[in-house]
Write a structure and sequence with these properties.
The complex is a heterodimer. Chain A is of the alpha/beta class. Chain A contains 10 helices and 10 strands. In chain A, α3 crosses α4. Chain B is built from 14 helices and 4 strands. In chain B, a hairpin with a 2-residue loop joins β2 and β3. The chains are: A alpha/beta, B mainly alpha.
Chain lengths: 262, 339
């Protein structure tokens, strides 16, 4: 049994089948990535899992429980923390207040196990883990984008999640920053043992850190496997590059993470 | 400003305001003291706008109407036919405003911004026509008379006694709102202002937080209505015209909308501006509309300068779900980039 599992999930927006029968799963202590070209349905899948978008069919299970009766905020309190595309922190609050809000909510969620530390200490611990302890008293809007992203992840960790859903955390980062972010995610996996479901455009980062990869295109799952398998999958390469270029590119792209445009 | 200075400056500013306000009765004549009393009352109403709009980001145009609900309920309950004492009638009036705000808040939960503003304004107009202007409900077209009672050791018929009661209630409200700002509830309210979707995926219950914001802010407005009824001693429909809510919201926005100090400034503007301006402008072309003109121009200036500020902030990469945060390569282009 997976920690988080989507079974045959379908989402329809009017006449568009945004996600079509996607099955995927995340285990504790595992980084699972969902990749795919723009419009493939990656964020929609994440929205369906976190309860922002109703399912047309299929179901989402978390720790063996069907999430259908639980609204988005209940899912977050159950241990399914989520970041949104782009940094979306609460303006008008300091970094500490952003983290405190999350820590306090997790305390009210009456979910075992009981929090080991008082909220204030958990906030300090999360800030220390992400290296933002010196910025706790600053307004979140005063921080540069990269630091805001760390606050965003720290806030998610303050919810005491069992599973972390990250929507394009590397968006808008440079190569060095995205490597640091990849290391951070590995550290979260190692130290905290969380399951991480990552939707990402940065194919190179995904190939470097993910344990398992699902590839979406036009709402359907076109491939899944370990990074080594995905790297060589001709279906994936053609989805990213177009069929005519695929054959030509296969050899060279293999090392370059398809040479995906950034 | 450093954090320490910021933390210390708020109580100091409040203390300075209280000291200045406490000295007013010995300085001002009766007419000016009435303006100051109205300033204190409307500062309480402005606090309700700070909570619902400044923090929670919900544009409510029914706050002065909730004031009216508080005032009319108090007047009815204290009238000889019912004859409740003030200490029972005032909580009942505040409760009436809060309950009514939940009744209107429930259907409006899915609305935001201009849509919520329209719905609350519509509600205010309905209440104005159906209740405040309805002589079978409010009993008199000329307004209900409210007698100032003796409350324990306080004889509220004395102007100065009532003034200090108003000041005390305002200070109590300020402290209450300040405590709320530091609480988890206050942080939840503020989280809604930036991103409702972001708040919900982080475990914030939108429904309960919004209803708490609606009811607390309506209770503050209802309290302001109770104070208004005691001060003016007569409750009629005119002061609770829906347009007054727009005026009050405008003043709070001009004053800064998010802090307690903003509410105090807005209260002063509301209490003092009409008599001062109408005196200077009565003979001019603008006539009695001068207040609206000044408030309107001030509001425009604030909004324009804010938009410019936000325009600069927009250069930072940011977005709101479900819009993409960055300009991404369209799928067709994506597929045809050579390796």
């Amino acid at each position: 049994m997976f920690l988080l599992e989507a079974r045959e999930v379908g989402v329809r927006y009017g006449g568009i089948q945004a996600v079509d029968g996607v099955t995927c799963g995340v285990d504790a202590g595992e980084i699972v990535a969902v990749i795919g070209p723009n419009g493939a349905g990656k964020t929609t899948l994440l929205n369906a899992i976190s309860g922002l978008t109703p399912l047309e069919h299929g179901q989402v299970l978390f720790e063996g429980r069907d999430l259908a009766p639980h609204s988005a905020h209940r899912r977050a309190r159950m241990g399914l923390a989520r970041t949104l595309q782009g940094v979306d922190l609460f303006e008008g609050l300091t970094v500490r207040e952003n983290l405190l809000l999350m820590a306090r909510i997790s305390e009210n969620s009456r979910r075992p196990p009981a929090p080991p530390l008082p909220v204030g200490e958990r906030v300090s611990a999360a800030a220390g883990f992400l290296g933002i302890q010196d910025e706790l008293e600053r307004q979140v809007t005063d921080l540069p984008g990269g630091r805001q992203r760390l606050v965003d992840i720290a806030a998610a960790l303050c919810l005491r999640p069992r599973c972390l859903l990250l929507d394009e955390p590397a968006a808008g980062t440079g190569p060095a920053e995205s490597i640091a972010l990849g290391r951070l995610l590995l550290r979260i996996r190692e130290v905290l043992g969380l399951g991480i479901l990552l939707v990402e455009h940065d194919v190179q980062m995904v190939l470097d850190i993910a344990d398992y990869i699902y590839v979406l295109d036009f709402g359907r799952l076109i491939a899944e496997g370990t990074p080594a398998q995905i790297r060589r999958d001709p279906v994936v390469i053609s989805a990213y590059l177009g069929e005519d270029k695929a054959a030509l590119a296969t050899a060279g792209a293999a090392q370059e993470g398809f040479g995906a445009p950034r | 400003m450093s954090t320490v200075a910021r933390r210390a400056s708020a109580p100091l500013a409040l203390a300075a305001f209280v000291a200045a306000a406490a000295a007013m009765p010995s300085v001002l004549g009766p007419a000016r003291l009435l303006s100051m009393s109205l300033a204190l009352i409307f500062a309480v109403a402005a606090l309700s706008v700070v909570v619902i709009t400044g923090w929670t980001g919900q544009t409510s145009l029914a706050q002065v109407t909730f004031m009216g609900v508080g005032a009319f309920t108090l007047a009815r309950l204290m009238a000889p036919r019912v004859g409740l004492p003030l200490y029972l009638a005032a909580p009942a009036a505040i409760l009436a405003a809060a309950v009514l705000s939940v009744v209107i808040g429930l259907p409006a939960l899915r609305l935001r911004g201009i849509y919520l503003a329209v719905v609350t304004l519509g509600f205010a107009q309905v209440l104005q026509d159906a209740a405040f202007n309805n002589s079978t409900i409010t009993e008199s077209q000329n307004g209900l008379v409210v007698a100032r009672p003796v409350l324990g050791p306080l004889d509220l018929s004395g102007e100065h006694t009532l003034y200090y009661l108003l000041l005390g209630v305002l200070v109590g409200c300020c402290l209450l709102v300040a405590a709320m700002r530091r609480s988890s509830l206050g942080r939840r309210m503020i989280s809604l202002r930036t991103t409702e979707v972001g708040a919900s995926v982080r475990g914030v219950d939108l429904v309960s937080t919004k209803l708490a914001a609606f009811s607390i802010s309506a209770a503050l407005a209802g309290l302001a209505g109770v104070l208004y009824a005691l001060e003016i001693q007569s409750v009629g429909p005119a002061p609770f015209n829906p347009l007054q809510s727009i005026f009050l919201l405008g003043l709070v926005v001009i004053a800064g909308q998010r802090s307690i100090a903003a509410a105090l400034v807005a209260g002063i503007l509301y209490g003092w501006m009409p008599p001062e301006l109408t005196r200077h402008f009565t003979d001019s072309t603008f006539g009695p509309n001068a207040t609206n003109l000044v408030a309107g121009v001030g509001l425009l200036l604030v909004v324009i300068s804010r938009e410019q500020l936000r325009g600069m902030a927009l250069r930072l990469p940011r977005g709101r779900w479900p819009w993409p945060r960055r300009i991404t390569v369209a799928p067709e282009v994506h597929r045809n980039v050579p390796a």
